[in-house]
From TrEMBL:
<protein>
    <recommendedName>
        <fullName>Globin</fullName>
    </recommendedName>
</protein>
<keyword id="KW-0813">Transport</keyword>
<dbReference type="Pfam" id="PF01152">
    <property type="entry name" value="Bac_globin"/>
</dbReference>
<dbReference type="GO" id="GO:0020037">
    <property type="term" value="F:heme binding"/>
</dbReference>
<dbReference type="InterPro" id="IPR001486">
    <property type="entry name" value="Hemoglobin_trunc"/>
</dbReference>
<dbReference type="InterPro" id="IPR009050">
    <property type="entry name" value="Globin-like_sf"/>
</dbReference>
<dbReference type="GO" id="GO:0019825">
    <property type="term" value="F:oxygen binding"/>
</dbReference>
<keyword id="KW-0349">Heme</keyword>
<dbReference type="GO" id="GO:0046872">
    <property type="term" value="F:metal ion binding"/>
</dbReference>
<keyword id="KW-0479">Metal-binding</keyword>
<dbReference type="InterPro" id="IPR012292">
    <property type="entry name" value="Globin/Proto"/>
</dbReference>
<feature type="binding site" description="distal binding residue">
    <location>
        <position position="45"/>
    </location>
    <ligand>
        <name>heme</name>
    </ligand>
</feature>
<keyword id="KW-0408">Iron</keyword>
């Protein structure tokens, strides 16, 4: 029997974010990238992520800013984004079930794909994959 419920409030967002980033910090592939970039600023990063997901999923507009610029120069490849998405999906599926849980996975997938392509675009001097 599955007792999981959907994401309903800020406490659920905090549970999601805290659980996800605990796994991220310990992951062999993406942990070093996050830990190097964030350093001792994890509490501030988590607060920002609470506001981001609260805005995205609960439509409570507590986040403002541009999420991409801090990621622009990260030393990441497609495998990093795949692992990020794998951990995110596992975290959601282990904690929640419902419409907003599915929405969170869709939003995360779209964001990961966009960030990957934008990072590659900047690395290639403003050229995309389809240009020679």
């Amino acid at each position: 029997m599955n007792d999981l419920t959907d994401i309903k409030n800020l406490d659920d967002i905090k549970l999601l974010v805290d659980s996800f980033y605990t796994k991220v910090q310990q992951d062999n592939l993406i942990g070093p990238v996050f830990n190097e970039k964030i350093g001792n600023q994890w509490p501030a990063h988590l607060e920002r992520m609470y506001r981001f997901w609260q805005t995205i999923l609960l439509e409570e507009h507590t986040y403002s800013g541009s999420p991409f610029p801090p990621h622009k120069h990260l030393p990441v490849a497609k495998e990093h984004f795949n692992r990020w998405m794998e951990i995110f999906t596992e975290t959601i599926d282990g904690l929640f079930q419902g419409k907003l849980a599915e929405e969170a996975k869709l939003r995360a997938k779209n964001m990961a794909e966009m960030f990957f392509y934008k990072i590659e675009y900047f690395r290639n001097g403003g050229r995309n994959f389809f240009e020679s």
